[in-house]
Design goal:
Length: 258
């Protein structure tokens, strides 16, 4: 075989290999894209339809809002009664900056050079806003532990939703402070038989996973009064889930309890 024939055969072989390589397409498995909506802190829902047994307090508790916020957004006046089928708005109106009616800037009036501007002395004797003694007493609480038991889960371990305290089935649960029962039922998923006590316009306390509720909605409660009996929590252990809510937001009870 002469050199020309050899080189010609090599070129033909190379071209055929390249064409085969270009025509090859790898067969990948189809990939499906999934959309995830991440909601931080508060629920994504914009409206809630009232169901039997709901109160404005329980709806606020569910979504992390103060009952006063919900009342304001929905024009609900005291005593904050709601009805089945009512749509509760879970957001407030967005505030927009006020637009001035006259966009033209007014010319500044120049004062004669002979008149010197003098700064008025600051009146240091002006009274500072004070809080009445009665209001201070309302804001100041002396919380007590609702039960004696072992701390099973801390605030961080519950996802910043209160604490879990271990005990025995049927153990009496006491009110951590004086107040009024604003919810008594089992309509909130994950809380079992739940009691919510309103202490003032700012603070609520919640007692979940009860075997039996011993007080009713609207009932005035004294500090240390027995309000429920302990039931089974998650993992079928006798635990009380206890929360303190300040202005609708869950706070660490250990910062308030003695």
């Amino acid at each position: 075989m002469d050199n020309k024939a050899f080189y010609l055969g090599a070129i033909i072989l190379l071209i055929s290999l390249v064409s085969v390589g270009c025509s090859y397409k790898p067969n990948y498995a189809p990939v499906k894209r999934t959309k995830y909506s991440v909601v931080s802190g508060r629920a994504k829902a914009k409206y809630y339809t009232v169901k039997k047994g709901d109160t404005l307090y329980s709806i606020g508790f569910r979504y992390g809002y103060s009952y006063l916020q919900l009342a304001k957004w929905n024009n609900i006046s005291a005593p904050h009664n709601i009805y089945v089928g009512q749509k509760i708005k879970l957001f407030g109106a967005k505030s927009s900056p006020k637009k001035s009616s006259n966009n033209l800037k007014k010319p500044l009036k120049r004062r004669p050079a002979s008149h010197k501007q003098t700064k008025k002395p600051r009146n240091t004797s002006q009274k500072k806003p004070t809080v009445s003694k009665a209001k201070k007493k309302l804001l100041k609480f002396h919380w007590q532990w609702p039960i004696r038991g072992k701390l099973v889960k801390t605030f961080s371990q519950t996802g910043n939703k209160g604490i879990d305290i271990g005990g025995k089935i049927g153990q009496p649960i006491k009110a951590a402070e004086a107040g009024k029962v604003v919810y008594s039922g089992n309509g909130l998923v994950g809380y079992g038989n739940l009691l919510i006590i309103k202490h003032n316009y700012l603070y609520l306390s919640a007692y979940a996973n009860n075997r039996r509720l011993l007080v009713k909605e609207g009932q005035d409660i004294k500090k240390g009064q027995v309000i429920a009996e302990m039931g089974l929590g998650k993992g079928k252990q006798a635990t009380l889930h206890f929360e303190i809510r300040k202005n609708g937001k869950s706070v660490n009870p250990l910062n308030y309890l003695p």
